[in-house]
Each structure stands twice: as structure tokens, then as C-alpha cells.
Amino acid sequence: MKKRLSLEAFKSGILKGDRVVLSRAITLVESSLEQDARLASQLVQDILPATGKSIRIGITGVPGVGKSTFIESFGNLLLEKGKKLAVLAIDPSSQKSKGSILGDKTRMKKLSLNKNAFIRPSPAGDTLGGVAAKTREAMLLCEAAGYDVILVETVGVGQSETSVKNMVDFFLLLVLAGAGDELQGIKKGIMEMADGIVINKADGDNLVLAKKAKSTYQNALHLFPLSESGWTPPVSIASSITNFGLDKIWDMISSYEAITLESGFKEKNRSEQRMKWLEENLQFLLIHRFLESPQIQAKLASEKVKVQSGEVSPLSLARELMDLFFKD
Amino acid sequence: MKKRLSLEAFKSGILKGDRVVLSRAITLVESSLEQDARLASQLVQDILPATGKSIRIGITGVPGVGKSTFIESFGNLLLEKGKKLAVLAIDPSSQKSKGSILGDKTRMKKLSLNKNAFIRPSPAGDTLGGVAAKTREAMLLCEAAGYDVILVETVGVGQSETSVKNMVDFFLLLVLAGAGDELQGIKKGIMEMADGIVINKADGDNLVLAKKAKSTYQNALHLFPLSESGWTPPVSIASSITNFGLDKIWDMISSYEAITLESGFKEKNRSEQRMKWLEENLQFLLIHRFLESPQIQAKLASEKVKVQSGEVSPLSLARELMDLFFKD
Predict the structure, then answer these.
(1) Which intervals hold domain AAA+ ATPase (chains A, B) (predicted)?
(2) Each residue of B3-22: pLDDT tens digit?
(3) Which of A34, A163, B61, B315 could form an SS bridge with A132, CB 3.0 to 4.6 Å?
């Protein structure tokens, strides 16, 4: 492994927009070594004044919906508009299959060659809480390095959408037009988190289907209560191949940005997100520390199945474990 | 305060179905005194073999939808069918206004006079995690005392529906027919949790509206993916005044019960719920213990606003607090 940079070297490199230093800083954030974690935490704290100026966009959709191709095309549009773009991914499941670095870079060929785009695959990690925390810190590092649009990509796995929703300003759901069952396969609750829906692959024979799906989705969204921002999520159709509709999606996000800046919702939302992150970090660190204890691990291993079967009450075991942990 | 009963006295009283002992046991479970909590935990553990045989039904709906009247009428129907019924409530918000004991008993006059019905208002508590844990233990005590249908009522506040969903077999959503905006006012995500929807107050002039609303809801439910149980949530219309439709709701729940018993989903679901409860209890006890520390409280009080404003990174503060807590 390369020699660790100093805090100062990390800081000045990032603030200058040095991509190599940025990459190494994200690796630092992702490290599970306690020494790295402390340095990372100090680094994130130090660059904090340079963060927050980007538009943070979450992108989700089931596998096969064309997220990478969309990000490739949409990302290139943003680069043409003079934006600096960082693409992060949060996908705890991808760790199982590995190889996501190569995967992401080949999936987004054009983007990965552009010096104004920075692509970083999903960090390794065995818990969503950990992976999400790392992605969020990576996002802050990218902001400090001057990226003004951050795309955070996620797959519909477990609670990862909620984590992404909690770190972005705008949450975009990609869907496909299908034969009447457009909404099948979308995880419960996802549609209600979206600030905008894009019906992707609206090209060729699909275009007619996509237009139909658009009204289906619009009707469905109508059934949901207004979100706190006062924004009604629009439904757009787009093709990442013909680039049809991509401009409109950027307009959608830009007007959301303008409206929420004006109303103060953007800052209010971010402030609430920070408090949620404090809570989540605390809970994560506490439970992590707890589960690291060999005594706790042994007890859990032997008693868990009794809780599962209903033989031991969850609260009983929880109390026993607490006593064990705090007995000294 | 009355003398505390012994563990044995609690146990035998509950298993005999003694309502006074049951009441006192629930009070014990609700107590925040450490001594009570330990006895309660032991008690719940000891009666565990006698639990689990009931149908656990969650009932939710916005204020004004007529939950109490519905529970009064529906509950009386169940009593007529020879069931023993316990009604519990989980509503963290009700603590602010107090007086829920008197409230609940006057709201459900007929039920509260029947010896086969046991009504218990929402326990006091300042966190949902705590309130939910207490309600769940109360549910187990009621089951051990022979109640074979448990209704857990909740209001759409914060995350309380998720807590209730995680402790019941069947989750029923009550709604009202309105003028075109039937679904307004239902909290995001609630509809997707429901195993059945009842359009309440379907009497008089409302009947026509209710029938219309029924098809609106049916269409909306169609948009959601199939739940893991394979069950498609039906929509019923009912009146708690004329008793119209109540029988059908019981049929709906009974066939859900039969199907999920047969498929094994009921036990699978309960087993998963138990593991969730173990996790939640652990997290609750850990964070509770953490936040009880005067040092942590002082630090949080002075530093929280810096996180809110974005001056201090959430992870930085979380780490500092962890160091403080575990420094000895």
C-alpha cells in the first residue's frame, strides 16, 4: 500500500481538485482501520466549509432499467453544460459479486474519460449503515474538490433507497414502460420517495408505450399526499440512446433546485438530513462496537435461534446482552 | 402504589386470565423503574410458552376516520362470535395530551363493559421505541391471559405504523370516502403496508361515495407489487353505525389467517418480527444507556446546533461522543 498522505496534503490536494488525491481520500474514508477512520473523520471535518454547494441527485430503479446508460448520457449532457460531475454508487449487494470498479468504468465509457467527471463505485462494506456513511463522506469530499453535481446511484436493495434519499436534494426514479404492469417490480414505498420519475428507454417501438405509462404514473402520483417541499413529482419520458428528453429532466431538477432554494426547503431538508446522519452514525457506531465484543458474539450465536423460534423473548435476550456488555 | 406482586403471583394470575393481575402486569411492563423492568422481562419470558395463539390485528387511519367506533362495533361482533378480545393502543402523541385511559374507556363503552374484552390505552413514554416495546410485551401478556384476538390501534404519527406492522399478523387501514381526494391525508407508505382497506362510515348519503372510493382504492392497490405473503389486499366498505360490512371484514381477516397458516407465512413472518424486535430492543437499550450519560447529554446540548448548521460533520461529533462514552 502507498504511504498515507498527511492531513494537510489531503486537504490541499482536494481543495485544488486533484483527482488522485480525491481518490485516495475516498479510499481513506472507506478504510475500516481505526487509524484511517480517525484521519478521515478529521479530514471531512476540515473540508466541511468547502462542501454543500452542489446539487445532490439520487438515482434509483430496478436492475435492467438502464441506470448506467442513463447516467452516461445524462452525465454527458451535464458536462456539455459546463458542470463538473461526480458519480457515486451505493449498492451493498454489489460487494458480493465484486469487481464493481472495472464494471462501473466500462459501463460509463465516455464519462470516465472526461476530466470533469469523477466516477467512484460503491464502497465495500457489510452493512448498509457503514456503506451509506462512507458514500456520504465521499460526497462531501467530491464537493470540496469542486464537483457541482453529485449523482448517487442505488439499486432497490433493502433500505438503500432510504439512505440515498437521506443524503440527496432530489431523488429520481427510473422506470420502464411495460405491458400494463408498469409499476410491478418497484419496491414498496420507493415511488412515494421520488421527486421525479423518468420512463427510460422511450425510443423506437417503446415510445408509444412510454407515453401511455406516463399517464399511468401521473395518475398514481396523484394519489399520494403532497410532499413537505410542496413539489408535485413530474413524470418525464426519455431515451438514453437518442438523448430524447434528457434536457427536460435537467430542467425539472433545476426548477426544483430554484424553488427549494427560494422557499428555504433545501437548507431545511439538509439540516434535517444532518441530524438524521448524526443519529444514524451514533446508532451504527454503538451497535458496531457492541457486536464487536467476542462475548456478545458468542452469546448471540448460541441464543439467536431461540428468539427466532419464540422460545426466548427478544427483550430478555437484549437485556442479558446489555448486562454482559456493560458488566465492567 | 400497591405492593408489587411476586413473579409467581403474576404468572399464575395471568395464566388463569385474571384481569386485575393482567392489568397490573402491563403496568409493570410499562414501568420505567429498572427493578420493575427486570421483573417484567422475567415475567414475559416465563409466560412465553402460553403466547402466540391469537390473531394480531393492527388498525390504523387518520384522526376522524372513526377508529374507536369501528373498534367498538367490530369488537362486539367478535365477542358475539365467542372471541376474547384485547384492545391495545400505540400512540406516542397521546402522551402529550394525557388522559387516554378515561378517553379510551368512554370511547368504547359497550366493549369496556364486556368481561371478554380487555381495553388498555397507549402506554406513556417519550420515545416510540420504548412505547412500541411496551405495547408488544402487553400483547404477549394478553395472549397468555387467553385473549385470542388482539387489536392494536395506532394513529398516523411518525413511525408508529411501522412499529405496529412489525408486531401484527394483519394490518388494516381505515379510510373515508371523500370528494375525489380519497387518498389525501394518508401518510406516505401506509397504503403499501395494508393487508386490507376498509372504507368506513359507509352509511346514509355516504354509501354511494364509499362504493366509488372502493374502486379508486382497488385501482390504486393494483399498482403496488404483490406482497411476500402472496395476498392481494381487499377493499371493503363498512359502517360502524349500521354494522354493515363488518362480517365481511372478519371473513377477510379469517381467510388471510387460514391462507398464511397453510402457507407457513404466518410463522415465517412472526419469526422475522421476533428478530426485528431483538434488533430494535438492542438498539433502543444501547442508545438509551448512551443518552443517559450526563457527559453525553452536556456535549450533545452544546454541539448539536453545529451539526444542524453544517459546521461540524455528523460523523465527527458521533466519534467524539463515542470516545467520551467509552473512555473508561
Answers:
(1) 53-204
(2) 779 999 999 999 999 999 99
(3) A163
